[in-house]
Specification:
It is a single chain. The protein has about 450 residues and is of the alpha/beta class. Helix content is about 30%, strand content about 20%. It has 12 helices and 18 strands. The strands form 4 sheets. Strands 7-4-5-8-6-11-12-13-14-17 form a 10-stranded mixed sheet, sandwiched between helices. Strands 3-2-1-18 form a 4-stranded antiparallel sheet, with helices on one face. It has a two-stranded antiparallel ribbon with strand order 9-10. The longest helix is centred in the C-terminal third of the chain and has 22 residues. The chain is globular, with a radius of gyration of 20 Å. Its EC number is 3.1.1.-. Belongs to the pectinacetylesterase family. One of its GO terms (molecular function) is pectin acetylesterase activity.
Length: about 450
């Protein structure tokens, strides 16, 4: 795979990884280069999904460092160690392979010592036995394969120059190893697959409460991609962990997966979610307000549950989410002639008819997002970029040339909303008007 990131006039980045991986970066300084690379780890993690993408192709942080040839200390990045949840086994809260779930924790300090940011990791889903068995041999299905330490960048950074509003909070990344956005409940004896996503979430929250989160003054649940979907699914549940005096909000980044019609007139993502929900028994953990009216798989979609969320929530998404374009709107199964092959990987190759179709997808996203954002307590930031996940990448979260809507970066918009500095309902004009985007271009097979 070959990915090109366009981000203004003075930066380009290319990643090549097949049997190995090499990286070239031009422009800016070493710190910014590495922050961009580590941010992309979160992005690629979010792009891996069940049977749609064969294998876990996400480059590890350690692999990136080795190929770039930099040293952690020299780079000045915050590397946070892995902690296994030892109490989880007795609760049956285990990864797909039966190993212990885990998280990374960096304690808060100063004015943020009693504030908590809990980030739910993304990384796609598995919808059948084959793809779930495959995940057992990856860090998205087993803590045995998880990195022993990971970088905290973007909204997770401890540097006030890179993360002005949340840098000194207690920051936690809960690792994702169940394949159903922390919602599964089941077990497949023949394949030895543990579908315990809800139990993992519960065990992680119990551990964090015991470490001081119970007495938090402020709390924010965040996540991108499958983690963003998990935020939407768990938002009110997270709020319920705290007393009435705690300020609790939720931030869903690239989690607005739509029940959209694909280029062949079918429902690729709905069919996929049916497999996820049915296989992993997730229906018992989906909102009863939805499942009492709709079938389980439909209640996995944010558009069918957002209107019942009581907790303040911020929706951050691109109008042209590249994951949804590639895997939901124009997958190979819906495009047997290959008409969409190049357009879905490189927006600059799309013809007028294809752009019109993508504009229709954006319209559907805006209709969904605007409905939930009509409540004053909720926030919205929908930019017209071809990207996926923007909070955990330093270049898109907060930087000299980060994406903007008006005069607001993603970080400023989220901070203004969380701290009630102003109401945030930011919607970009349609493509191609935004010149601040950090668009992704994919090349290769």
């Amino acid at each position: 795979m070959h990915i090109h990131v366009t981000r203004g006039a003075n930066i380009s980045l290319e990643l090549f990884f097949m049997h190995g991986m090499s990286i070239s970066i031009r422009g800016e300084n070493k710190m910014n280069k590495l922050n961009l690379l580590f941010g992309l780890v979160a992005l690629f993690s979010g792009l891996a999904v069940g049977s749609c993408i064969q294998g876990d192709r996400t480059p590890r942080a350690s692999e990136i460092l080795a190929n770039v040839g930099e040293d952690n200390d020299e780079a000045g990045l915050l590397m946070v160690p892995l902690t296994l949840i030892q109490s989880a086994s007795g609760k049956g809260a285990v990864c797909l392979d039966g190993s212990l779930p885990a998280y990374h924790f960096n304690p808060g300090f100063g004015s943020g010592a009693n504030s908590w940011l809990v980030n739910l990791e993304g990384g796609g889903w598995c919808n059948d036995i084959r793809t779930c068995v495959y995940r057992k041999t990856s860090r998205h299905g087993s803590s045995n394969y998880m990195e022993k330490e990971i970088p905290f960048t973007g909204i997770m950074s401890n540097d006030p120059a890179m993360n002005p509003d949340f840098y000194n909070w207690n920051r936690v990344k809960v690792r994702y190893c169940d394949g159903a956005s922390f919602k599964g409940e089941g077990y497949d004896k023949n394949a030895s697959l543990h579908f315990r996503g809800q139990r993992i979430y519960d065990a992680a929250m119990e551990e964090l409460l015991s470490k001081g989160m119970r007495d938090a003054d402020q709390a924010l649940l965040s996540g991108c991609s499958a983690g963003g979907l998990a935020v939407i699914q768990h938002c009110d549940e997270f709020h319920g962990l705290f007393s009435a005096i705690t300020k609790v909000k939720c931030l869903a980044d690239a989690g607005l997966f739509l029940d959209a019609v694909d280029v062949a007139g079918g429902r690729t993502l709905r069919n996929f979610y049916e497999g996820v929900v049915d296989l992993q028994g997730a229906v018992v953990n989906l909102p009863k307000s939805c499942t009492s009216q709709l079938e389980g798989a439909l209640c996995f979609f944010p558009q069918n549950i957002l209107n019942n969320i009581q907790t303040p929530i911020f929706l951050l998404n691109t109008g042209y989410d590249v994951w949804q374009i590639q895997e939901s709107l124009a997958p190979k199964s819906a495009d047997p002639t290959g008409y969409w092959k190049y357009c879905k990987k490189n927006y600059t190759t799309c013809d007028a008819k294809q752009i019109q179709f993508l504009q229709g997808f954006r319209d559907q996203m805006l209709n969904t997002a605007n409905f939930i954002s009509s409540a004053k307590q909720n926030g919205l930031f929908i930019n017209s970029c071809f990207a996926h996940c923007q909070t955990e990448r330093q270049d898109t979260w907060y930087g000299d040339n980060s994406p903007q809507i008006g005069n607001q970066t993603v970080a400023k918009a989220v901070g203004d909303w969380y701290f009630d500095r102003e109401e945030v309902k930011a919607v970009d004009c349609a493509y191609p008007c935004d010149s601040t985007c950090h668009n992704l271009i994919f090349r290769g097979s």
